[in-house]
Each structure stands twice: as C-alpha cells, then as structure tokens.
Design brief:
Layout: H1 12-20, H2 82-96, H3 101-104, H4 112-123, H5 130-145, E1 160-161, H6 163-171, E2 177-181, H7 193-200, E3 204-207, H8 210-216, E4 224-227, H9 235-248, H10 253-270, H11 312-320, H12 325-344
Parallel strand pairs: 2-3
Antiparallel strand pairs: 1-4, 2-4
Helix pairs in contact: 4-9, 10-12
C-alpha cells in the first residue's frame, strides 16, 4: 500500500513503485509488444538572446490601488448629454408602455412615393425669403419715389406655416390640405390637429419630419403647414394627393369603429366582464381619443436589456379568466362570420 504519511515527500514516487511491484511476480515479465525507440532527431540549437542585466523586469499590477489602469472602452460610464438620455428613454418607454392612440398615430407617416410628390408640389408654393421681400419692397419704394403711384400687389398663393395659423385656417375651413410633422417635441403642440381636421372635414397627413417642413418655409423646423390657395395648373395634382391622403388618414376612423364592434362581439361570445381599458387587448390604431386611454396599472419595469418575448395566450387567459381558449376563439370566429353575413346581406 502507498504510504501517504511518508515524511519524504520528494520520494513518494518510489513508494508508488514499490506498491506496484507486487502486481507481477519476480522472474516473469509482462506480456506486450515492444515499441521501437523513436529515431533521434537532431535538435536545433537556438541562439540565446543577449539580455542586458541592467534592464530589470517591472511587471505592472492592475489590482485595486496599484498601478494606473490601462485605457479601456468606458462608453458605458459616460455621462451622456441630456438630449441623448431623453431620446433613449423615450424610445424605451414607447416600447414598454401602452401608447395612447392619439400619440401612436404619429408613428404612421405617409409613404415615401406619395410624400415625394407632395413635397414636389409644396416646393412650388414656398413663401418668399427675407432677401426677396427686401428686394420687392425696395422696388416698390423706388416706384413710389418716381411718382408712379403706390399700388399694392396681390398676395401670391403660398404655404401657411405654424400651428396657430394652421389651426385657425382649419377652424374656418380655408385649408385645402394640412401637413403635420411626425417628430414634434413636445407632441402636445399638434396632438389635437388630426382630430380637429377630421371633425372639420379637412384632409390631413403626417410626414417625416419637422426639419423637412422647416426647409419649405425657410426655418429650422416647422410643426405644420397648410395649402390654402393653389394655381389652376396644379389643381389636378393636388386632387390626386388629397384622394390618396384621405384614404390613408381621414377614412381610417371607420377601421377603429370596426375594431370596437369586434371587441363587443368577443365580449358576448366569451360571456365575461370585459375590462374598460380597450388598449389592454388592441394596440392603438391611427386615430383615437386621448380620453379613452387608461394606463396599465402595473407597467413593465424600465430596463435597457431586451425582455423575453411573452406568449399572447397566457395573457388572454389572465384577462378573460378562461382556460380552454381555442374552443372559445373558434366560437367567436363563427359568431363573427354570422354577424358579418347579416350586415352584408
């Protein structure tokens, strides 16, 4: 047996050899194939590097309170500017919380093809710059000084800009088309405009973004722009744009009504007390009222990490208090078909 208590630690290997010597009796060799010895390989003699003994090795210690730390990527610990923090927090809040329909409609901007045609038409009706106005007034003053009389010129058809101006034009039904920027901050400045335009029967659209609208009217940014008067040669182009825009925005209110009808039918089929907060089941659509929004009493915690995607079925089970969900949904679809058949026939 191996003597673990051997005082000669450096000779413990000899103890192990003595223990293994009893496996084979003396005089008898273990059977096995002999392996040929490896051919001797000529070892290459590497020249030793000459090290100056005056140069001492001084390895750095990066422990706490020791040497200065090496340069690392410290992006995570940077104190970012306020506008960067705000836009990051805003994007996360829009993902985590239930967004009201009146605010969420600004995420659905006009498609690129229609927007290109719209801006091409709007470019013709840009208001005059300060230099052009100065030149016009100077020519008018020279004409007056020459004794030819001061006749005021007729105002050319141009775009009207600014939320107050556009609101008064919509209320008086003088606006032919209203263009709203999608990234106005604070959004409360223009959140009422789509509902007002729909109520007054004025076509409106939401485009990207406030800087592009600002370039139209020679400003840095602009919240909204309205067409009031237009030249006869451009009436056909404007009519086509208005038709496409009405389909995408003004007529979308009917879709919201259809969604609310389907919720009511779902409530009848499932025979449960449906919650008053409709946003728990249906996410916001293009149009809607702010008053109909009620926030989730237990919103998700604000986190920079990606959340695990949750299944929709357990959430519905929790909402309606039912376990066998699939038969209920099948029954709902059947009743929905019956109702639609009665409505269409």
């Amino acid at each position: 047996k191996l003597d673990f208590k051997c005082s000669r630690y450096h000779q413990c290997y000899s103890c192990l050899l003595q223990a293994n010597s009893h496996d084979h009796p003396k005089g008898k060799k273990a059977k096995g194939k002999k392996v040929a010895p490896a051919p001797s390989v000529a070892k290459k003699h590497e020249a030793k590097k000459v090290v100056n003994p005056l140069f001492e090795k001084r390895p750095k210690n990066y422990g706490i309170g020791q040497d200065i730390q090496p340069k690392r990527d410290l992006t995570r610990f940077v104190k970012w500017p306020r506008y960067v923090r705000l836009q990051r927090q805003r994007s996360i809040l829009y993902k985590r919380l239930k967004v009201p329909p009146a605010i969420n409609q600004f995420t659905q901007a006009l498609d690129r093809q229609t927007a290109t045609q719209l801006f091409k038409l709007a470019h013709k009706y840009r208001p005059e710059t300060k230099q052009e106005k100065k030149k016009r007034l100077l020519a008018r003053a020279e004409q007056k000084a020459a004794g030819k009389g001061d006749t005021p010129t007729k105002r050319p058809p141009v775009l009207r800009a600014g939320v107050n101006t556009v609101t008064s034009l919509v209320e008086s039904k003088k606006a032919q088309l209203v263009i709203i920027a999608h990234d106005v901050d604070p959004i409360e400045l223009v959140v009422f405009l789509p509902a007002l335009c729909r109520k007054m029967g004025v076509p409106y659209c939401i485009v990207k973004g406030k800087a592009r609208l600002g370039r139209l009217v020679h400003r840095k940014t602009c919240t909204s722009v309205a067409f009031t008067q237009i030249n006869p040669e451009d009436k056909g182009a404007l009519a086509k744009l208005v038709e496409a825009i009405k389909t995408n925005y003004n007529d979308r209110y009917e879709e919201v009504r259809v969604n609310h009808v389907s919720i009511y039918i779902l409530q009848i089929c499932l025979k449960t007390n449906f919650p008053n907060n409709l946003n728990l089941f249906f996410r916001s659509v293009v149009t809607g009222e702010v008053a109909s929004w009620a926030p989730n009493p237990q919103p998700a915690s604000l986190s920079w990490r990606k959340q695990r995607p949750r299944s929709w079925q357990p959430s519905l089970v929790k909402m309606f208090g039912i376990k066998n969900l699939c038969p209920k949904i099948t029954e709902f679809v059947y009743h929905l078909k019956l109702v639609l058949y009665k409505l269409l026939s």
